[in-house]
Amino acid sequence: MQTTTTINKLHEHVDKTVTLQGWVYKTRASGKIAFIIVRDGTGLCQCVLERNEATEPFFDEAKKLAQESALTVTGVVKADDRSVGGHELSVTGLTPVHASTDYPITPKPHGIEFLMDRRHLWFRSQRQWHILRIRATIIDAIRRFYNDRGYVLIDTPIFAPAAGEGAQTLFPVDYFGDQVFLAQTGQLYLEAACMAHRNVYCFGPTFRAEKSKTRRHLTEFWMVEPEIAYASLDDVIQLAEDFICSIVTRVLKDHRDELVEIGRSLDDLEAIKPPFVRMTYTEAAELLRGPRVKEFLENDLAQKKTRVAELDKTIEELDAQAKGGGKQWQKEKAAAGAIEAREERSEITEQIANIPHHMELAANFEWGTDLGGSDETIISRLHDRPIFVTHYPASCRAFYMRGDRSDDRLVENFDLLAPQGFGEIIGGSAREEDYDRLLAKLKHENLPQDQYEWYLDLRRYGSVPHGGFGLGVERTVTWLCGLKHIREAIPYPRMMGKFYP
Ligand code: 4AD
User: Which of 49, 57, 224, 324 lies at a C-alpha separation of 20 to 30 Å from 403?
Assistant: First the structure.
């Protein structure tokens, strides 16, 4: 009797006959032998078809099956370390389920716009497949972290009557004639819940009308937000450190092979150990203006220029090979290599063009302004562990943050920057628990008091120090997978000008 199984369970069936249900990932045939790499959603398996009595009835048809055709394939499982996934199938039977023709995403390199328009197909590709599985593990690790510690899950609303973060990034929605907004955060609702349950968290999609196209911004992203009653800023920072360490440990435990496959250095992730770096905003401002950053950026510029010169040489060589007299597959490989080298070159050239501007921004950084994207990148590139930047000026932070009682200009908040240039992944703070101070902040920011009466109630009835933070899932996936752009960190990215498919 033959068993239907999946590729991730082949190790249970060595030397036995099984059937796989999947799709053609790649094929290669020469004369009397054909290799079909099948993917079935759980992994890849090389299926080997030799032309013999058993395979004769379908050999020719199987050889012609195009990329992404659906099929079931039966054969004997062989353990083989050299083979993708560690097993091979020696095929005895094969049934096409659906013939695919002209699948648009071929093994050749494609431009990002082309791939993004075909996101619904693109995530069948190995690299995207790995990333989305790592994302699923990160989300599981997040839920487990809080559930295991007894935090109560509170689902906060998505239709919100007022801003939770800045009013500039609100998406308005017509709500039966009233205007409401898509939630930017669940935090304010969570603050109310922590006065009922003490330790709570929410986890859901949040929305920001970000009018800039950066590699870090989505308009729809997932955020997990814990909130704790009777907590100080230090308690919240400690929680964030434990939380990040637990996610990194889990990803390293479950996804070593995938991380290597997508080019993420395991050593870099293994270096994510407590204690993380801590600096105040004021120290960060001094760092940006100081000689260390200047020297760092000058070296960076020199290194990038050297790399461009190397790439120029590589491109020239590969172009010559692509046009030269080698075998067809060698020419194609050289042409693909040249495309990749050109892409890297254009990326680095763009970075080189930006460095002088970033140097100027850093050198002239003014105390009181928010850290910009390039400032965060610089601070983050100077470290190989995450960095807590604390105590920002009140003027550049949200109204709900607790005023620093020892320096009126500051709030008790933090951003956590992921190292190696990845930048902010968490924003958090102690919350203002004093009624008068909070009311003054609302007025100062011209926020409609009537919309926040319920929130002020929390400061009327049993107000206590409390705090929490928000971690962006896609920023975290981007960092842990070592992605260049956040768009690959979510199944269907939503960005300015991008909402299809
Ligand atoms: O720093 P933010 O705006 O903090 C809040 O929303 C607080 N209410 C959280 C809290 O204290 N409960 O956002 C938190 C995190 C950021 O650090 C970032 O990881 C992510 O959310 N984030 C975004 N991710 C992708 N695209 C965007 N446009 C994002 N804006 C914020």
Answer: 224
474 lines ligand 1 (CB under 6 A): yes
Rounded distance from Cα 297 to ligand 1 centre (Å): 28
**Whether residue 152 is found in the same domain as residue 247:** yes
Strands (E), 349-465: 387-390, 413-418, 423-430
305, 337: one domain: yes
Same domain as 480, residue 422? yes
Average pLDDT over residues 473-486: 97
Q: Could you report the per-residue pLDDT of 120-179, keeping only the tens digit for each?
A: 999 999 999 999 999 999 999 999 999 999 999 999 999 999 888 888 899 999 999 999
Query: Model confidence over 86-122: pLDDT tens digits?
Result: 999 999 999 999 999 999 998 887 888 999 999 999 9
> What is the span of the domain harbouring residue 48?
3-98
CB-based contact 458:191 (threshold 8 Å): yes
181 within some domain: yes
Q: How far apart are CA 285 and CA 273, in angstroms?
A: 25
Going by alpha carbons, the residue nearest to atom 6 of ligand 1 is 185
CA distance 293 to 305: 18
The reply to whether ligand 1 has any atom less than 6 angstroms from the CB of 391 is: no
Q: Does 129 lie in the same domain as 271?
A: yes
210 lines ligand 1 (CB under 6 A): yes
> How far apart, in Å, are the Cα atoms of 452 and each of 162, 197, 368, 459?
8, 21, 27, 11
Confirm or reject: Cβ of 87 under 6 Å from ligand 1. Answer: no
Spatial separation of the C-alpha atoms in residues 93 and 95, rounded to whole Å: 7
pLDDT digits (tens, 9 = 90+) for 282-335: 999 999 999 999 999 999 999 999 999 999 999 999 999 999 888 888 888 898
From the CA of 486, give the closest atom in ligand 1.
25
Name which of 325, 344, 322 is nearest 333 in CA terms: 322
Confidence of residue 81 (pLDDT cuts 50, 70, 90): confident
Q: Is 402 in the pocket of ligand 1 (CB under 6 A)?
A: no
Q: Looking at ligand 1, which residue's alpha carbon is closest to its atom 31?
A: 472
Q: Whose CA is nearest to atom 22 of ligand 1?
A: 472
- Residue 324 domain-assigned? yes
Would you say residue 378 lies in a domain?
Answer: no
- 151 shares a domain with 81: no
**Distance between CA atoms of residues 447 and 439, nearest Å:** 10
Whether residues 432 and 332 fall in one domain: no
Do 11 and 125 share a structural domain?
no
- In percent, the amount of the chain with pLDDT more than 90 equals 89
Same domain? 47 vs 161? no
Whether 326 is in a domain gets the answer yes
pLDDT reading at 2 higher than 80: no
With 80 as the cut, is the pLDDT of residue 1 above it?
Answer: no
CATH number for the domain harbouring residue 20: 2.40.50.140
In the three-class reduction of DSSP (H, G, I as helix; E, B as strand; rest coil), residue 85 is classed as helix
